[in-house]
């Protein structure tokens, strides 16, 4: 018997299962066992690593307290440039992020929340009118659908119909992550984005951890090894995931911690785009026009690139392709000729492209810098050294 198995056998009978986790186990967890944020047994549900801009804080403050009391997310899923967009929230739960985003997309935008757990959706649906009135909209721009994130088609969601998909601490709970990414890719429009926060592990997790009901329910047992996300994204056809931010998660529960020893976990936010596969990805100079609401002075695109208004920045071919083929196209001026940069142009692109969320989280910690300050890549200049 391995040490882990010994410790596992000391756990209470109800944690034990030698069967793979099912949708029903997770429904039971979020529908029956956990009723509010403080019922969670670990720290997986941590404060977002990124600073929250004031206009997003204001939108969050307007969400109904009953909705907020059942928030179980692990990051801030509020990408930029959302006005008028059609959004989908995978595993929306009681709808906190849907309502925050309802405010941000505005009356002309729309957001669909999908979740499989009736009890969560009940709370979400109960407050549609409250938020419609609060935001001063003439009709709701939010709907909640019951269904599985691995089967968006069956839930009635159309192909090529969403500009942005977000998800907050949900994909780790799915027993079939390939289907989740495939379905997300299918329902996104061309140029669309999957922007999601989730829990990742430092290596692949063994069956003893994966089959522990509480660890799975608390978002650890089903956590993807971050390198597997890179492989899955490529397999499905997404652009290489761009790392936005990462934050170390401590378990905060002695018994569960001992089961997980030897493994580390982070909460990380990645952005993946549905853009044409372009073998010829060339570096490019770009200038941000400063027109995105809430990000007029600067736009922190990921942990490498922060675009300041009117500043010339050299981006790698992948980012150039993302910006040109997505909703960001109108927000930038592109100058493909990198050989004759304009006066004041930025230094070269970062030499090492950091995609490992553990490295990013460690950098923030060792510099004793909260990611809230922008961390190691808070400015383009600091990234480009
Ligand atoms: C950790 S909670 C997060 C909820 C919400 N995103 C939030 O931030 O409060 C996970 C949610 O995902 C839902 N969920 C998990 N797996 C799912 C699946 N395969 N299909 C649909 N919903 C799922 C659960 O019902 C639960 O409401």
From TrEMBL:
What is the reaction catalyzed? arsenic triglutathione + [thioredoxin]-dithiol + S-adenosyl-L-methionine + 2 H2O = methylarsonous acid + [thioredoxin]-disulfide + 3 glutathione + S-adenosyl-L-homocysteine + H(+); arsenic triglutathione + 2 [thioredoxin]-dithiol + 2 S-adenosyl-L-methionine + H2O = dimethylarsinous acid + 2 [thioredoxin]-disulfide + 3 glutathione + 2 S-adenosyl-L-homocysteine + 2 H(+); arsenic triglutathione + 3 [thioredoxin]-dithiol + 3 S-adenosyl-L-methionine = trimethylarsine + 3 [thioredoxin]-disulfide + 3 glutathione + 3 S-adenosyl-L-homocysteine + 3 H(+)
CDD domains in alphabetical order: AdoMet_MTases
- What are its GO cellular component terms? cytosol
InterPro entries named in the record: Arsenite_MeTrfase-like (IPR026669), Methyltranfer_dom (IPR025714), SAM-dependent_MTases_sf (IPR029063)
Q: Name one GO biological process term.
A: toxin metabolic process
Q: Where is the Methyltransferase domain?
A: 83-237
One Gene Ontology MF term: arsenite methyltransferase activity
Task: Give the family per the record.
Answer: Belongs to the methyltransferase superfamily. Arsenite methyltransferase family.
PANTHER family attached to this UniProt entry = ARSENITE METHYLTRANSFERASE (PTHR43675:SF9)
Protein name in the entry: Arsenite methyltransferase
Q: What is the lineage of its organism?
A: Eukaryota, Metazoa, Chordata, Craniata, Vertebrata
């Amino acid at each position: 018997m391995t040490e882990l198995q010994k410790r596992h056998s000391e756990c209470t009978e109800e944690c034990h299962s030698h069967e793979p986790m099912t949708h029903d186990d997770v429904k039971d967890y979020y529908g029956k066992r956990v009723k509010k944020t403080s019922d969670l047994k670990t720290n997986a549900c941590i404060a977002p690593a990124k600073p929250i801009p004031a206009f997003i804080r204001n939108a969050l403050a307007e969400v109904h307290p009953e909705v907020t009391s059942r928030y179980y997310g692990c990051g801030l899923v509020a990408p930029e440039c959302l006005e008028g967009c059609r959004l989908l929230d995978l595993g929306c739960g009681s709808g906190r992020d849907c309502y925050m985003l309802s405010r941000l997309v505005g009356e002309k935008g729309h957001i669909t929340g999908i979740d499989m757990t009736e009890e969560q959706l009940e709370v979400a649906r109960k407050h549609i009118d409250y938020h419609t009135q609060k935001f001063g909209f003439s009709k709701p721009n939010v709907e909640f659908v019951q269904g599985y994130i691995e089967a968006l088609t069956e839930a009635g969601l159309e192909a090529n119909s969403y500009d942005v998909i977000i998800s907050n601490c949900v994909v780790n709970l799915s027993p079939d992550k390939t289907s989740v990414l495939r379905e997300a890719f299918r329902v996104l429009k061309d140029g669309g984005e999957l922007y999601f926060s989730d829990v990742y592990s430092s290596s692949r997790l063994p069956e003893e951890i994966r089959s522990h009901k509480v660890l799975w329910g608390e978002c650890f047992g089903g956590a993807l090894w971050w390198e597997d996300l890179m492989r899955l994204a490529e397999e499905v056809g997404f652009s290489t995931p761009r790392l936005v931010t990462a934050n170390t998660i401590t378990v905060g529960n002695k018994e569960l911690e001992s089961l997980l020893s030897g493994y580390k976990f982070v909460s990380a936010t990645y952005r993946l785009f549905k853009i044409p596969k372009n073998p010829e990805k060339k570096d490019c100079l770009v200038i941000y026009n400063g027109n995105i609401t809430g990000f007029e002075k600067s736009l922190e695109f990921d942990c490498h690139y922060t675009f300041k208004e009117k500043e010339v920045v050299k981006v790698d071919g992948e980012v150039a392709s993302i910006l040109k083929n997505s909703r960001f196209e109108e927000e930038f001026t592109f100058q493909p000729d990198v050989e004759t940069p304009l006066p004041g142009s930025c230094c070269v692109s970062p030499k090492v492209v950091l995609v490992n969320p553990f490295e990013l989280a460690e950098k923030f910690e060792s510099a004793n810098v909260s990611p809230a300050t922008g961390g190691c890549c808070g400015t383009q200049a600091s990234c480009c050294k």
